[in-house]
Known about the structure:
36 strands, Methylamine Dehydrogenase, Chain H, globular, mainly beta
Amino acid sequence: xxxxxxxxxxxxxxxxxxxxxxxxxxxxxxxxxxxxxxxxxxxxxxxxxxxxxxxxxxxxxxxxxxxxxxxxxxxxxxxxxxxxxxxxxxxxxxxxxxxxxxxxxxxxxxxxxxxxxxxxxxxxxxxxxxxxxxxxxxxxxxxxxxxxxxxxxxxxxxxxxxxxxxxxxxxxxxxxxxxxxxxxxxxxxxxxxxxxxxxxxxxxxxxxxxxxxxxxxxxxxxxxxxxxxxxxxxxxxxxxxxxxxxxxxxxxxxxxxxxxxxxxxxxxxxxxxxxxxxxxxxxxxxxxxxxxxxxxxxxxxxxxxxxxxxxxxxxxxxxxxxxxxxxxxxxxxxxxxxxxxxxxxxxxxxxxxxxxxxxxxxxxxxxxxxxxxxxxxxxxxxxxxxxxxxxxxxxxxxxxxxxxxxxxxxxxxxxxxxxxxxxxxxxxxxxxxxxxxxxxx
Length: 441
């Protein structure tokens, strides 16, 4: 954490500032929380809950922008949730997007439509709403995609990916968080020649389509800049691809094939290195060409090396990869340079309070607080955790139970929704409520 410590000690600002959390992994899509004036440990009795608001089922994260919180959910009208990882199950109900006052939790508006589900783990939307330039983009799990006025909830445009592109929903639903860059919205769709699609963000018109694969996967479009060129990364279950974001032409492509179509994490860049991993012990470090768009493999992880990610995108801090490993269910630290594992612990994933908890996919969503260098983790057990990490150890500073796990996976009760950090607070949800947690000093 040397860089973060330097920033905290020598560049500490005179006044704290507030940031929004308008998209996946935060304002810069990098998992870094840049607000100041945030607690380094919880007070006795835990942090204050500022408000609670009732919501329905969903895996999607809240979005915070311009004093409002946006959250999607599913209101079940017929059927019950059956979590079979290899089979689809039907549900009937409404897919909804709610807007709340971030200061008070008051419901401001709701946009809803009937949407039958036929997917595995059907308990609600996955992809979080994205807010940009006064619009909120609402991806549905069965391919409905709506653009709304962020202030009023008025519908601006809507598309249906299954109808427009002649495809079926992936077994776990459309899940990749959309990316807005300039006047373009990039989305992972699927089908022949349309795995990646660029839309006009204001009208929904298709600008270009690119790539074919048997399945689209679940990895969010990721924009990087290297060799002086912006490159749009699209990782589908057959290969990791870099596209020209203007026209969708392919700059480079490397084979990287996880099991069951589970390309999920957003590839992570550190300098001229790029890391991605997935189900089936598929993990690799790539080196980007410094002269022109291009990449080559440096290493491919073997069993008990690196981190094999599923639910959570790992983050790279000072040459170390930190994240939740699908096979061990452990929060793990591994060398970016060599893939060597430094340590692993199930404390922030499965929790220590119930030693009988078991199974794969143990989950802790992680965010780096820039000023302090500490990690804020939200565990599948419903605990919010403050910790310090290094190649030597995981050191837990504080933990507080915020929400009850209301869903189920691998015979465990879980809450699998990432938090948002804004307004010196954490915004977290389960299948019953959205809460704002005060983290101001």
